[in-house]
């Protein structure tokens, strides 16, 4: 009798604990989920990954594979992305485009190649850190966000968010986040005109030693660079009304400190 009662009590305790765990998960907000995911990868110095993107729409079919590397150096994040894009238009015309984007911490260089045509653009480095979910947080403000039941992606447990946007264009987006490392490993967007975009991330590696030369860029010889870093001055016939103290300044001077030959791994 005692053993039977003890077993019943134990079953009750386990049931309460299981229910409490489910309730705690259900009580997590989307913002709390993003904070928890960010905390999993915030201390990594380098991240390498491969992403595969597919876009299906009445206007085009696009397949893209991107090799990305990110290096956090103190408060600076340097990135390098190499992308191969295959696009097929509704008339069957196919295009192949390769793109290289290098953020050296001060400038962002974009080199696009299609056939023999090469275009290079130089911009100020974007102010947002790419190793957080700040942009995603802004996206989530545009619609109704729901925390969905966990799922597995390639055998890996993932938290799932769903965003439903009704205006200006209807869109439903699902995001999968790895419980192991906090990274977004899948993204599916279903929008207007029966368009579907799918992004899957694989081959994630943390804190591997990376050659610092990967995060520098020199334009090919003979290619004109579209420089968007220089300040624009007002025409002489239309003097600016902007106060001198707020006038755009010149591009910042590159650091005199040479970059190390290898991006350090964690603990170095």
* CATH homology-level superfamily of the domain at 30-206: Lipoprotein localisation LolA/LolB/LppX
- The CATH class of the domain at 30-206, by name, is Mainly Beta
CATH architecture of the domain at 30-206: Clam
Strand order, biggest sheet?
7-8-9-10-11-1-2-3-4-5-6-13
Helix-strand makeup class: alpha+beta
Mean pLDDT: 81
CATH fold label of the domain at 30-206: outer membrane lipoprotein receptor (LolB), chain A
Radius of gyration: 24 Å
* Terminal Cα span: 62 Å
Alpha plus pi helix count: 3
Strand content: 35-45%
Ranges with pLDDT <50 over ≥5 residues?
Answer: 1-25, 233-268
Q: Give the oligomeric state of the chains in this entry, treating copies of one chain as homo and distinct chains as hetero.
A: single chain
* Biggest beta-sheet profile: 12 strands, mixed
Task: Assign a percent range to the helix content.
Answer: 10-25%
The rough form would be described as globular
Write the H/E string, N to C: HHEEEEEEHEEEEEEEE
Blueprint of the fold:
Layout: H1 2-26, H2 30-41, E1 46-56, E2 61-73, E3 76-88, E4 94-103, E5 107-114, E6 117-124, H3 134-140, E7 144-153, E8 156-165, E9 171-178, E10 184-191, E11 196-206, E12 210-211, E13 225-227, E14 262-263
Parallel strand pairs: 6-13
Antiparallel strand pairs: 1-2, 1-11, 2-3, 3-4, 4-5, 5-6, 7-8, 8-9, 9-10, 10-11, 12-14
Question: What do you see in this structure?
Answer:
- This protein is α+β, with helices and mostly antiparallel strands.
- It is built from three helices and 14 strands.
- It has helices at residues 2-26, 30-41, 134-140; strands spanning 46-56, 61-73, 76-88, 94-103, 107-114, 117-124, 144-153, 156-165, 171-178, 184-191, 196-206, 210-211, 225-227, 262-263.
- Strands 7-8-9-10-11-1-2-3-4-5-6-13 form a twelve-stranded mixed sheet, covered by helices on one side. Strands 12-14 form a two-stranded antiparallel ribbon.
- It is globular.
